[in-house]
Each structure stands twice: as structure tokens, then as C-alpha cells.
Amino acid sequence: MTGTADEPDKGAEVSGNEDRMVLGLMATRIGFRLRMLQTLLGARVVNGFAPYKLRPGAFTTMALIAANPGCSQVDLAREGGLDKSALVAIVDELEQRGLAIRGRSAKDRRRNSLFLTPDGEKLMKEMYRVAHDTERTIREGFSPEEITQFFGLLERAYQIVAREDLPAS
Amino acid sequence: MTGTADEPDKGAEVSGNEDRMVLGLMATRIGFRLRMLQTLLGARVVNGFAPYKLRPGAFTTMALIAANPGCSQVDLAREGGLDKSALVAIVDELEQRGLAIRGRSAKDRRRNSLFLTPDGEKLMKEMYRVAHDTERTIREGFSPEEITQFFGLLERAYQIVAREDLPAS
DNA sequence: TATTGTTATACTCTATAACTATA
DNA sequence: TATAGTTATAGAGTATAACAATA
Prior knowledge:
The structure is a homodimer. Chain A has helices spanning about 30-50, 60-65, 75-80, 85-95, 120-135, 135-140, 145-165; strands spanning about 15, 100-105, 110-115. Chain A is mostly helical. Chain A has a domain at about 55-135: Arc Repressor Mutant, subunit A. The longest helix of chain A has 22 residues, at about 145-165. The interface between A and B is large, with 90 and 89 residues.
């Protein structure tokens, strides 16, 4: 849009530090460290899941349905960090592929009660192994105590933030 | 596309567990815990940065330029987890707002040497406080030792994964 | 031949709002 | 009036490939 590259001070030749990068202030940002690690791991998972031709979120959705048979789509949206509208397409896909079933709740007929089919259970477990394998070397590089610490800190941090975001504080 | 909602077994009324959700297999997935926490923190940061009318990545870019004056755009892309093409728009914006300068490297004239202006330094520090504040209660909920552990584990996990993704293993 | 910066493009993901049916 | 599910749409972010300049 505004390609003015002929000012005297803009194209000036300068010399600065062209060595290895340091993180500076970003080193103390939890969100930044989280994102950097997740970007790398997420790319691996996308790669590993590619053969299954399922959209992102399908595996998480299947795993949560398996752990909570009969749950509703809003339950899944909340727990999986997605919007409820995004879940429609995911559940559509799972149903069309014969991996999940949309039943109707007997108690509240607005809600869908979601279940995995045997095929869905099987595929979910297979994808879990794929996903878990992308983190294998991290687990191998950590001691069992460190793994426990890591999950504990992640869980506590999440609870702190989630609790604050709920009420009208 | 295929809205067949009249099979007898699809709309069947069923009853399942409609209580609180559990994570099941997802509880042991590092990537899932990372994403859940980051989704929450990211929303806070987006919210806090809204008044500045800068695109996501602009703050990270400024902070990394400040820590590495004279760095190039590919340096920033690699360190910030972005594509180099995404950085063009960000640096364009920073330059147009008078927050950063694109100099030309004297050693390698393909490279831009990036610097923050005094205004850029000032704004970057202000935004750092905003971002840091979104994580305040996590830090307050952790002991100093736990904070150190948390960053240490995050850093080690990142190094493990990053090291594997580089060579042709 | 490889790399930096750039542009254009296509694609995906997400966010929003509106609508329905139920409560 | 509020909630669950659905749909449509617009917007933002990302990835890809191609190109020019330089190494």
C-alpha cells in the first residue's frame, strides 16, 4: 500500500547484533513459552493425524465423548475450548463417518446425548497413540517426578485462570 | 450436505452421564493441557491489547527486536514461531506507526536490520506490563520454586522438541 | 544454488449473530 | 426469558508458492 523506500533514513546501512537470538522479556512470559512449545507439538499432531482426514478437534471431541458418554455439545465446547458452533461440523463429520452417534437426551430434549460407536472407540485409541507418541521424547527426557510436577503445575495454572474467568469479578 | 435425520436409531432417546465432564485420556496429553491454558491466557492478552490496535504478533516482535537489536526478519520468524511472510505485515505496521525501523545490514544486503524507536521501546514496555498482568495470579498462586520449575520444564520440553525437528532424523 | 524479503493467494479456524425448539 | 443446537457469514491467521535481489 505505502511503499516509500527512498527516504534517507529508512534504507540506511546499519550494523547491529546479528548473532544468536535471545528471548529478552519474553523469557519470563508464561503465555509465550506455552505457545512456542505448543506450536511445535501441534505441527507434529497435525502431521500424524493427516492420514485420518479428520478436522482438528475431532480427536479431542472423540476422546471427551469416550470419557463422558451421553455428554452434550455445549459440554464438549466448554471442556474442549471450542465454540459450540464449531462443534456442529465436527460431530456431523464423526456421525457421517460412523464414529459417533447423536442420541437425544430423554431428560432435556434440547440436548444431544453423544456416544462413540465401536469404530469410534477403536479409532480414538489409535489416534491417541499417535498423539501420545509426539510427546514421547519429552516424557523420556523427564523423570517420573518431573512429569507429575509438569502436569500438576499446568493443571493448577489452568484452574486459577478458569476460576477467574467464570464469575463477574 | 447430507441431512438425513429420519433414521430410527439416530434420534433415539437415550440417557447417559450428563454430570460434570472428566478429561479421560486427554488428562495425560501435554499438548491438550498446553492448549487449554493457552486458550484462556491468549484471550486475556487479546483483550488487554485491543486498545493498541496492533495485530497479534506485533508485541512479541517488538520484544524480540528489543532483545536483539539489528536482527533480521527470518530471525524473528524462527524465534517467534511465525512464518517469514507473516512478519512482513507486522514490521510494515510497526514501521508505519513509528515503532520500529528497517535498516539495511551492511554485511549482508539481503537482510533488514531491525530496531525499535524510542516510542517503540516505550510502547513495548507498556504492553509487556499488560501481558504480564494476565499471568499475575498464576505467579501469585505458585511459590517462587514452582515458578522456576515451571519455566524450567517448559524450556526443557521445548528444547527437546525443537532439537528433534531441526535435523533430518 | 541458497537465502532474504516480498507479494499474492488460498485455506482454515474462529467469532458473531440469528434462527428453532425446547425449557 | 434462557439454553441447546444449528446455520450462515465475515474476519483473522496461516501456509504456500512464486518472484527479485543478493550471497
